[in-house]
Amino acid sequence: MALTLALLGLGATLAGLVVYFSTIVKHQVPERPVGLIGALIIGIALSSTALSMEVTVGVAVPAVLSIFTGVLFLWILTLRKTPLGDIKVKVGDTVLAFKSQTDTNQPFDETAFQGKRTLLKFHRGAWCPYCCAELKQFEEMKPQLQQFKIDLVALSGDTVEDCKNHKVRDNLSHTLLADPNLTVVKQYGLEHQKALGGNSDNVFVLFGIPFPMMMKFKSMSVPTTLLIDENGVIRWIDQSADYRLRANERTVMAAVRQVFGNE
Question: What is the model's pTM?
Fold first, then answer.
């Protein structure tokens, strides 16, 4: 009976995680992950009951794995809010001067926006499953964005090498900018201090989703999107108050049409 409960607990935990992470791939992350939370709580309860009945290797291994995983992800969910309010630009402002390096190690600065329309994405890094799913979504949207002559540029705290590897790994065609010291992120007031994150050079990919092998508290970017016109003026800003949640295709394209009309 104890072994059955332990296996059921582990099954509930894993099933909840599989269903939840499938929503990332589909760009349908729920605002309130009640299904995941419920599955994790059930897994913890069943596994704890199993351990209270019998402590053997066969019972302990799945039970402890279920409890540890469940508690870990419940804790991570409590950290999902991002600090907003420090951003240093607003709609109608000209982009701030900055310098960065592209994924091909070429210099890049704000003058690159002149004469072009750009969707500039500040993201957390190639280790973040939510950011990577969003950049893949932008890649899928590229034909729609090209109708409005909009280029895609994404900046993170990754190194040039991380950006290069990220671009190849996820088959991205847009420009990735490296900001390893978060100089540009801080210029724009988009720093999320002491956030839980990973390193982009230490991830494993499962079903197209990157997972960091190790995590620690560090600074990174608040996920933020700027829509910039050909004069370098910011015409739309979107920020994630919850780093899991990003503007969907419909929202982005509605903003594009509002700014540039139905071209």
Answer: 0.94
